[in-house]
Amino acid sequence: DGGITQSPKYLFRKEGQNVTLSCEQNLNHDAMYWYRQDPGQGLRLIYYSQIVNDFQKGDIAEGYSVSREKKESFPLTVTSAQKNPTAFYLCASSPRARFTGNTIYFGEGSWLTVV
Amino acid sequence: DAKTTQPPSMDCAEGRAANLPCNHSTISGNEYVYWYRQIHSQGPQYIIHGLKNNETNEMASLIITEDRKSSTLILPHATLRDTAVYYCIVRAVREGGSEKLVFGKGMKLTVNP
């Protein structure tokens, strides 16, 4: 089935460790996004990428890093510099980044807990 | 980015139509209105979007006022599975033509039996 796959679903991290969240899509979408959601809150954009080997910071990029070496993959690394990383992380993709009106689709999310 | 305003919560009886309001008074002429919903601990699900005209699909209808300053999402026959947080979003276009969705806190719809 086509879609967006995030892994792992649940992840525990010790303070000071970097962790990487995986996001893979087989929808042939150009653009991919990472959002963070805290309990009871809306989604906030961390990073986004329009094409391979290109990405831009979103509203809360500090403490995070990404790469886009393949069209179908957009992994997010939560570094030790992120002061409060415990949250629900959502990956998304859309078919055309430069055309207003196209739709963004989301994965099922990954829960990260710092212990 | 244009901001949207939604009531924090709403109840609806099962089988009845659910009318979810959204205000977006600062929307620009080329910005679309999108609706998503999120069931707890899942990724948001796309429902519908529109620019000026009313839209309908298998999930819902979207009614946009003529001045585009507000819209209403209509679930014609609400079921218990429609209980979720509903987000009304105006699509922002950033410099360079890239785009993002700006999410607020949304509105919790509870469908009661």
Structure description:
- The complex is a heterodimer of chains A (115) and B (113).
- In chain A, a hairpin with a 5-residue loop joins β4 (31-37) and β5 (43-49).
- Chain A is 0% helix and 45% strand.
- Chain A is built from no helices and 11 strands.
- By secondary structure, chain A is an all-beta fold.
- Chain A has strands spanning 4-7, 10-13, 19-25, 31-37, 43-49, 56-57, 64-66, 76-78, 87-94, 105-106, 110-114.
- Chain B has 113 residues and is mainly beta.
- Chain B is built from no helices and 10 strands.
- Chain B has strands at 9-13, 18-23, 33-38, 45-50, 55-56, 61-64, 70-75, 84-93, 99-101, 107-112.
- In chain B, a hairpin with a 5-residue loop joins β8 (84-93) and β9.
- The mean pLDDT of chain B is 89.
- The A-B interface holds A 4, 31, 33, 35, 40-45, 48, 50, 56, 58, 88, 90, 92, 94, 97-98, 100-109, 111 and B 30-32, 34, 41-46, 49, 51, 87, 91, 93-94, 96-106.
Write out key terms for the chains shown:
heterodimer, A: 115 residues, mainly beta, seven-stranded mixed β-sheet, four-stranded antiparallel β-sheet, 11 strands, B: 113 residues, six-stranded mixed β-sheet, 10 strands
